[in-house]
Amino acid sequence: MENTRYLGMGAAVLSAGGGSYPYLEYLGTRELLEDRPAADLVPPETLADDAHVALVAMVGAPLPMFERFVDPAHFARPVGVLARHLGVTFDAVMGYEIGSMNGLIPVMVAVETDLPLVDADTLGRSFPEVQMSGFAIAGLDMAPIAISDIRDNDLILARAASGKWAEEMLRPIATACGSIIAIAGAHTGREIKEHAHLGTYSRAIRIGRAIVNAQRQHRDPVAALLADEPGAVLATGKVIDVERRTEGGFVRGRARIDAAGGGAAVVHFQNEYSVVEMGDRRRAMVPDLIAVFDSDRGEPLGTEALRYGQHVTVVRLPPLPRHVTLKALAVVGPRAFGFDFDYDHSNNEVNP
């Protein structure tokens, strides 16, 4: 049970603002585990090459998820829909992304389906669009994908020409369904071992343990995080303005922070934090992992939780090496988020 709390906290950091600490999902997981055994977390290296693995996630905007408790049966439903469509029995469950609620939802699905959970994901963090998955970047077919809404509608996306087309078709479905859909895809053990980000659940648990233990011992959680992970504090200060809007299935906007020591930091976001500007310099940009912490509580804040008057700490963690290849940057770099500039590698020289 304690690892569930650690996982939720670490997944909130790796969400890069795609969600705060997933408290409702934590409560749902804890309730589910009261009368069921915990899912086994299995190393991806132990999967057979021909193993059938169901990949699961919530697609939509994080904000509407605060209006309802997560129903494990809802997020497990597309796994059954896809199994029947393909005529297979799944051997394990894996998450598409290790971010906030999408870090805990696969745990709930694994318990609900009585399947082991693979210690890996396809993003290594959170990104807002399907084509930003490492599987899509590698050219793997993302379809078929089963889709279930919170009512009683199930769909199959039988074919997608690319990851971008999968995104273009899933996003309006999510919007029509209240910005909340459960999805399930299918990949083999070999594909996961070759193209997934391995060990990300273990990483999230390790990060979460460092933060939670620091909170309990009244130490600085950000310092505890940076003792465990390479990275740097970019700014501390007070939120003086937040612009936020929901459009096209995304939460978009920016926050302005009156930084201690003078000056201001502007943090842009599209579900996740994308760029940090300070003065005339961009101090961080996707695929850097940008996290904003509540300085009083020491918890990572999702974009939906930013409020005027909060005292916050902005942190940059370096990108994963796989995210800064030319092929990956075309999909997860600043231009993919609508910015008119390229990724600046010089930040990595001072913050390895």
In words, what does this structure look like?
With 352 residues, the protein is of the alpha+beta class. The chain has 2 domains: 199 residues, CV3147-like domain (CV3147-like fold), CATH 3.40.1610.10; 130 residues, CV3147-like (Beta Barrel), CATH 2.40.390. 32% of the residues lie in helices and 28% in strands. It contains 11 helices and 17 strands. An 8-stranded antiparallel sheet has the order 14-13-12-11-10-17-15-16. Strands 3-2-8-6-7 form a 5-stranded mixed sheet. It starts with a helix and ends with a helix. The mean pLDDT is 92.
What's the quick description here?
The chain has 11 helices and 17 strands. The chain has 352 residues and is α+β, with helices and mostly antiparallel strands. Strand 6 and strand 7 form a beta hairpin.
CATH class of the largest domain: Alpha Beta
Order the strands across the largest sheet as they lie in space.
14-13-12-11-10-17-15-16
Large-scale geometry: globular
Q: List segments where confidence is low: pLDDT < 50 over at least 5 consecutive residues.
A: none
The biggest sheet amounts to:
8 strands, antiparallel
Number of domains: 2
Strand content: 25-35%
| CATH homologous superfamily label of the largest domain | CV3147-like domain
The level of helicity is 25-40%
Number of strands: 17
**What CATH architecture label of the largest domain applies?**
3-Layer(aba) Sandwich
Termini separation (Å)? 34 Å
Rg over CA atoms, rounded to whole Å, is 19 Å
Secondary-structure-based class equals alpha+beta
CATH fold annotation of the largest domain:
CV3147-like fold
Order of helices and strands: HHEEHEHEEHEEHEHEHHEEEEEEEEHH
Secondary structure tally, helices: 11
Mean pLDDT: 92
